[in-house]
Write a structure and sequence with these properties.
Blueprint: H1 7-10, H2 13-24, H3 36-41, H4 48-59, H5 66-74, H6 80-84, H7 91-105, H8 110-122, H9 126-138, E1 158-162, H10 168-171, H11 174-185, E2 188-191, H12 201-205, H13 209-228, E3 234-237, H14 240-246, H15 249-252, H16 260-269, E4 270-272, H17 273-276, E5 287-291, H18 295-300, H19 306-313, E6 316-318, H20 334-337, H21 339-354, E7 360-363, H22 366-373, E8 380-382, H23 383-391
Parallel strand pairs: 1-2, 1-3, 3-4, 5-6, 5-7, 7-8
Length: about 400
């Protein structure tokens, strides 16, 4: 696609990156077929091709309106379009650049600003989110949490870091504890660093990009002493939404002279939990599971089929799931900010997941887990909890 970027961005790092991405797009529209928001809303401006066109116009200096912002807000950043695109268009990087410009050039209505500011402030702060969740439970809101259970002693020579994250310790501390037990059985001690907080994804994707990068730097600082001393061989992610972000630290902090090298090293050491386990687990007759592969796992990290093989090796039978490439609607804070689309996508996803009447639904991301569990009686678990239960 031919572009003539406006002066305000042409000679910047972002401008050059955006131009290179835009040039790759041939406007073929293959990506529209796999875009969840296009499927629900049916508007070309809510498809990847339409959004790419909008971003191109913005970067060429066209007027930016609230409508432009709305179409970018509605994007789930699921990156299904990247998986589909035959030309290798890095839509995720382009939309980050486009969103930053649109945010700076428009003004949201007051209530919307307050809402987004409250989410950006509250969600990444464990000390605030945990008590708030407790109050919500007292008030009878349907927010369940599972207890953590035992975390084994760090007794092995082989050690890996695991990210506690921001919302997961309050909603499901059981996930990392299960991961620690499964890895302990294969001779790896999993350790959490106190003070390691949010990966930055929440604030970054709420368009508080500078604040999101602050969270990234703070997390690097918390991990760095262990990484520098060579005490851990990998950084393990039990939430694919955090994993996809930490794997991009090298890119997201590339222009920060103090953190670029550290960020690249952290990204290189980061693995999803399914990348550190071997399918040779052995097991039979453990029950039936429908696996919901989060977008951040299958599109963002391009990891497909690994969790399914691990569940099968542990003894679970997988029930078929149609349209497995489509987002469940959770998408970070999207379920709170765009509830109509999010609820429609969730209803479709649950229909597909429950078609084979599984005993459990398994997923790989806390956001998807909470979102799906909010509308089904079928228990939704992180897949590592099912592996742990199968081994116990
Ligand atoms: S992003 Fe890829 S699939 Fe979509 S219109 Fe552009 S070239 Fe075609
Ligand atoms: S990231 Fe997802 S929602 Fe956004 S344009 Fe691509 S396919 Fe559509």
């Amino acid at each position: 696609m031919q572009t003539r970027l406006a002066e305000f961005i042409r000679d910047s790092v972002e401008g050059r990156e955006a131009e290179a991405i835009l040039r790759k797009c041939v406007h073929c529209g293959f990506c529209t077929a796999t875009c969840p928001t296009y499927q629900v809303l049916g508007d070309d401006l809510d498809s990847p091709r339409g959004r790419i066109y909008l971003i191109k116009r913005v970067l060429e200096g066209a007027e930016v309106t609230g409508k432009t912002r709305l179409h970018l807000d509605r994007c789930l950043t699921c990156r299904a379009c990247e998986t589909t695109c035959p030309s290798g268009v890095r839509y995720g990087h382009l939309v980050d650049i486009g969103r930053a410009v649109v945010e700076a050039r428009t003004r949201r209505p007051l209530l919307e600003r307050l809402r987004r500011a409250a989410l950006a402030f509250g969600l990444p702060r464990r000390w605030l989110f945990g008590p708030a969740l407790g109050v919500a439970r007292v008030l009878g809101l349907q927010l369940q949490a599972r207890p953590a259970a035992a975390w084994p002693e760090a007794r092995h020579r082989r050690k890996m870091l695991v990210l506690a994250g921001c919302v997961q310790p309050s909603l499901a501390p059981s996930i990392n504890a299960a991961a620690a037990r499964v890895l302990d059985r294969i001779g790896i001690s999993l350790i959490e660093v106190p003070g390691a907080g949010c990966c930055g994804a929440l604030r970054f994707h709420l368009n508080y990009q500078d604040e999101g990068r602050d969270d990234m730097r703070a997390l690097i600082d918390a991990w760095w002493p262990l990484v520098e001393r060579g005490e851990v061989e990998a950084i393990v992610m039990s939430a694919s939404g955090c994993g996809v972000t930490v794997k991009e630290y090298g890119h997201l902090l590339a222009q920060d002279p103090r953190y670029a090298a550290k960020a690249a090293r952290i990204s290189a050491m980061t693995k999803d939990l399914c990348e550190v386990l071997d399918p040779g687990l052995g097991g039979k007759g453990k029950g039936t599971v429908a696996f919901q592969s989060p977008c951040t796992l299958q599109h963002g990290q391009q990891l497909r089929g690994k969790v399914e093989r691990l569940l099968q090796a542990a003894g679970y039978s997988l029930t078929p799931v149609d349209d497995a490439h489509l987002c469940c609607g959770s998408a970070g804070t999207n379920s709170l900010l765009q509830p109509e689309t999010a609820n429609e996508l969730r209803a479709r996803k649950l229909g597909a997941l429950q078609a084979g009447a599984p005993q459990w639904i398994a997923t790989a991301n806390i956001g998807c887990l909470s979102h799906l569990q909010g509308a089904t009686q079928t228990p939704v678990r992180h897949w590592i909890e099912l592996i742990d239960a199968a081994q116990a």
